[in-house]
Amino acid sequence: MSEPAENAGPAQPYDLGGDAPVVQIDNLWTQFGRTVVHQDLSLEILRGEVLSIVGGSGTGKTVLLRQMLGLEHPARGCVRVFGQDIAQSDSQRLQRLRNHWGMLFQHGALYSALTVFDNVAQPMRELRVLPADLIRDAVLLKLDMVGLGPEHAAKMPSDLSGGMVKRVALARALALEPKLLFLDEPTAGLDPDLSDGFVALIRSLHRELGLTVVMVTHDLDTLFALSSRIAVLAEKHVIALGTPREVIAVEHPFIKQFFLGERGQRALVVLEHRQADTER
Predict the structure, then answer these.
(1) Edge-to-edge strands of the sheet including 180-184?
(2) pTM beyond 0.85
């Protein structure tokens, strides 16, 4: 028997105060056996920003994301989301927290046996407080927000293109109107045109919905197009944190290799053109 609906529902958002970080990570250690992945790692994610996390293989980007989601716990240190210590939250409190954030997985992670409609409706149905007609209207609204018409609602995931899977997964991530959105490689597997369109969609939703976004990506075009700030993981902690321009100026071998190659230079030119257009 599930808990009463009022214990599981989103209720009121957590009040952090105007300047309080949405996510605060303090002196975090991640360790698997004798392997230390993070050591005294600290990071704050501010309200309304797009914070992108980058790093080489083995630096624990996805692990850090999973710790923010409460799917893994650090060996030491503290991860607070909406002011709540994730590791110290019981299952009921953790579920309430999860109702205030959305997650877009790298490959969409849609339920293959459910229609598009049912995939997006699932988080709403789990609350057990919303009537069917309200869920129907809300699902169609979320699909419209990501650029999909009602004619797609009855389709199965196997009938969708890669770009449509991403959009349906994003609609599901936004189902409960979260203020915090996690993105894991949001443009992975998309061709350049589809990637550009999906980035434009995320940028628009970020602005219109007032979202705070935490993104893991290795794609430089996506990184420069969306990031307010970038956190670079290396040597078991955050070695650089700032705007794209500030991070690129940091003297470190990984930063030079990752950002200042041919692809990085092209992406940076696009960023500069976009900023110049914005300032006009």
Answers:
(1) 101-104, 180-184, 212-216, 50-55, 229-234, 237-242
(2) yes
| pLDDT value for 106 | 84
> Do the Cβ atoms of 181 and 214 come closer than 8 Å?
yes
Residue 255 above 70 pLDDT? yes
Measure the N-to-C terminal CA separation of the chain; round to a whole number of Å: 59
Q: Are 22 and 83 in contact (CB under 8 A)?
A: no
Per the listing, tokens 């990501």 go with: 146
Q: Could you tell me which residues are beta bridge partners of residue 233?
A: 55, 238
Q: What is the C-alpha radius of gyration for the chain, rounded to an integer number of angstroms?
A: 19
| pLDDT of 1 over the 90 cut | no
